[in-house]
Amino acid sequence: MNEAYLLDDEYIMYLRKSRADSPHESVEEVLEKHETILQELAMRDLGGRIPEHCIYREVVSGETIDERPEMLNVLSQIENPKLKGVLVVEPQRLSRGDLEDCGKVVNAFRYSKTEVVTTTMTYDLTNKMQRKFFEQELMRGNDYLEYTKEILLRGRVAAVKRGCYIGNIPPFGYNKIINENGDSTLEPNEFAPAVLMAFDMYVNQGKTQLEIARHFDKIGIKPYRSKIWEKCSIRAMLKNRHYIGLVYFGTRKDEKYFENGKLLVRNVKVEKEEDMIIAKGLQPAIVPLELFQAAQEKFANNPRKPLDTSLKNPLAGIIFCHKCGKAMSQHPYKHARTRIECRNRNGCGSKSYYLDEVVESVAFSLETVSLPELEAKLKNNEGMSAAIQKKLLDKLYKDLEEMQEKEDRQHDLLESGTYTEEVFQRRNKKLHAEMEELKSKIFETKQSMPKEIDYAQKIVKLKQAVAALRDDSVSIEDKNRMLKAIVERIEYEYIKWEGKGLVRYRLHIQLLL
Asked: Cβ-count burial of 469 within 10 angstroms (0-12 exposed, 13-18 middle, 19+ buried)?
């Protein structure tokens, strides 16, 4: 039996898991369940199923619209005048954020005249009363979100005070279990002796964190979430108080701040222990307290040297290994020239080369390859198509505005008696058809808008970057900044060469256009 599908441009579906759903169900299970409900609704009330490519599944977690890419896609799609509505299980799935997000959603559906089709009601936000009900639903969702977050926080704090382990991933050497009382805790596993070995090597054998990491790799002890051990992983292990039977919560917190007119969030470390929750854990200790304290004393007596944060590499943050994709970095030598290398410890096989020669190769390639390409594009007036299309879009908007004024005049003529009801309906129907066609042209024009590129400006930036790379009086920071203004990415490809002592490489340069 063939199933009927709705026209592609009539309805779309948006699916998202929220905190109100069962925590025992995965994101995929919740979305599949909701899709079944909405497909049944579409078959019953709309006459057909929603096609697969018209279904937007939000699989990432995000409290704001900007953190949910599929929701942003939905807001982009409802600009299409052919789109009649968006199917969603309840209004709160569209936004459980703050007032700004709620207002953004309401205005988008209201002014695009797009319906919100839910299992209980279809909302037409051009209708004042329906819009009010919809706004109340969104705010109820926001209140529930804030309440749920507060309840969850209280639950986490209470669990830690009881000695529970509330993290998702257990520390190395432990398994996460549920004990006979139903509490989440830790139990040592087969890697627990390796933890004790690390402390012994650091405290009693005088080994460095890097030496411990390499020893673990050598004897086949694998970390939980990566292929090899890193120095920072060993350091974190040696400072982890779970190994002496403690649990803690609140070592980091989200801090909101404004930057360039946007509300952003950064995760910062909590410095004072009195601002954390630290308690005796339910799990058994792996490391004796005396050994752990000795490790902390050694850390205190050998503080990290202040890092020299000044930039030393003009290609920093720009150059990557072509083979493994990792960022490359400089390797200074006391009695030899500085080299640029890939420090992938998995051994991708990419050979290092002299940094100064690679920098000159970048300058040479920009000057002899990239610059002529930009000059050719400028000569052919490429990059101007966006300006031309923008003029066309402005003309379409102006035509739409004139049509809206014409509609207002038709209403005036009807009220004054100049138009009969029959004449008004005929002419107004024709005008509305023309307006819908024009809105479709506006949508299509916006969707196909090419990127506007000022090639003349790009040429100036490229020449400045090349000149800076070759000028010893320009600081490394300025060289790097000017290079980043024109270059998005450089990939260093090592080419195996049979000649003795020879290294060959190729640079793949991607400009920032």
From this structure: buried
Distances (CA, A) of 167 to 19, 350, 422: 18, 38, 71
Burial 406-443 (b: 16+ CB within 10 A, else e): eeeebeeebeeeebeeeebeebbeeeeeebeebbebbb
Mean pLDDT of 159-172: 92
Q: What is the pTM of this model?
A: 0.54
Strand spans (E) along 39-128: 55-58, 85-87, 115-117, 122-123
Give which of 492, 477, 465 is closest to 312, Cα–Cα: 477
Measured CA to CA in angstroms, residue 333 lies from 315, 358, 492 at distances of 18, 16, 21
Segment among 97-106, 118-127, 137-146 with least mean pLDDT: 137-146
Host H or E run for residue 254: strand 252-259
Residue 468 has phi, psi (to 5 degrees) of -65, -40
**99 token code pair:** 């007032």
| Chain-centroid distance, C-alpha 105 | 21
Report the distance separating Cα 339 and Cα 494, nearest Å.
14
Q: 173: closest CA among 223, 133, 137? A: 223
DSSP state of 170: P
Q: Please enumerate in sequence order all residues whose Cβ is within 8 A of that of 137, keeping only pairs 6 or more positions apart, or say none.
A: 90, 91, 92
Q: What is the pLDDT of residues 279-301, one digit of tens each?
A: 999 999 999 999 999 999 999 88
Q: What three-state secondary structure class fits 491?
A: strand
Tokens coding 315: 């290609």
Query: pLDDT tens digit string along 218-272?
Result: 999 999 888 889 899 999 999 999 999 999 888 887 777 666 666 667 778 887 8
